[in-house]
Amino acid sequence: MPDPDRLDLTNRPRRLRRLESLRRLVAETRLSVDSLVYPLFIEPGAGIEQPIEAMPGQSILSPDRAADLARTAVGLGIPAVLLFGRPRFKDDTGSDADAADGAVQEAIRRIKDAAPELTVITDVCLCAYTNHGHCGVLDGETIDNDRSVAAIARVALSHAQAGADVVAPSDMMDGRVGAIRAVLDDAGHSETGILAYAAKYASAFYGPFREAADSAPSFGDRRSYQMDPPNVREAMREIELDIAEGADIIMVKPALAYLDVIAAARRRFDLPLAAYSVSGEYSMIKAAAERGWIDEQKVVTESMIAIARAGAGIIVTYWALDIARWQG
Ligand code: PBG
């Protein structure tokens, strides 16, 4: 037995943990405002700022208010926003989703006017716009992949025409990235990028978002199109297909429960890799912090570092503004 009073240690990892400045110096992962994307929910109308109950601190905004908040984001150094639209009306095929005068298209124009230097990314999906709440077009009670892809490509085009810098399909239909690339290129939008929700899981962590977007499916669930949580090799295949179809940025979603998927994607692919820290991740921490059970800033910082350490260079998070303020 070594005598604890006479330890002869050459290696003392604790040496580098002695000072805050030294710990900062040797940190392997850094959380930068440059990585952050801030999601905004856009409602038709003007002067609207309606708090989302299940997501304290977040609101549904009309295009004018969204433009104001986008300027705040720019002021804090945030490079990008991600827009989610809410429709004027819902129907079978989600036809308001590709309207040139829709709320999200209007918000794109307003934001690009108010903050031209900000990267505007738009979520491309039908679920908030269809009366059945699914992310595609139905054939009876099943989702018709190919008709859905055609509709989704039209939505992406309407966003590009309104001035979106990057479109982000979140529907998980097969072939949508290639179809969007072709439609954009044909219409002269070859500079518009595609951020593919490449490995998006059928997750219960989207619950609070569906209140905000009013996009819960009216029957069934999304498991015939979004991925099954046990699968990581399948995620690699989904990502590979999206890259082959022309994705510029790939994304894994949700983030915290899928750090292994992020890490596997980082090892295997060279494209910029994003992770979406989703509404359920936000609401859980918010709720516990409100009760005084955890320290919000510390838990959020630790969670974001974990996502970055796993390999995500881009993090979509509802805390983007707060993180920027905490770092400021
Ligand atoms: C739309 C979409 C969803 C989210 C992003 N885009 C919901 C879903 O797929 O049901 C979730 C975002 C979040 O929970 O923060 N398809």
Can I get a quick summary?
This protein is of the alpha/beta class. Helices cover 38% and strands 17% of the residues. It has an eight-stranded parallel β-barrel, surrounded by seven helices. A two-stranded antiparallel ribbon has the order 6-7.
End-to-end distance: 51 Å
State the helicity in percent bands. Answer: 25-40%
Quaternary assembly: single chain
What is the average per-residue confidence, as pLDDT, rounded to a whole number?
A: 97
Give the beta-strand count. 12
Number of DSSP helices? 11
Bound molecules: ligand PBG
Descriptive report:
With 328 residues, this protein is an alpha/beta fold. Helix content is 38%, strand content 17%. It contains eleven helices and twelve strands. It has helices spanning 20-26, 63-75, 103-114, 145-162, 176-186, 207-213, 233-245, 259-268, 279-290, 296-310, 320-327; strands at residues 36-42, 49-51, 59-61, 80-85, 119-124, 137-139, 142-144, 166-169, 193-200, 249-253, 273-276, 314-316. The strands form two sheets. The protein has an eight-stranded parallel barrel, surrounded by seven helices. Strands 6-7 form a two-stranded antiparallel sheet. Helix 4 (145-162) packs across helix 5 (176-186). The radius of gyration is 21 Å and the shape is globular. The termini are far apart. 46% of the residues are buried. The model has no long low-confidence stretch (mean pLDDT 97). The chain binds ligand PBG. Ligand PBG binds at residues 123, 125, 127, 135, 170, 206, 209-210, 215, 222, 278-279.
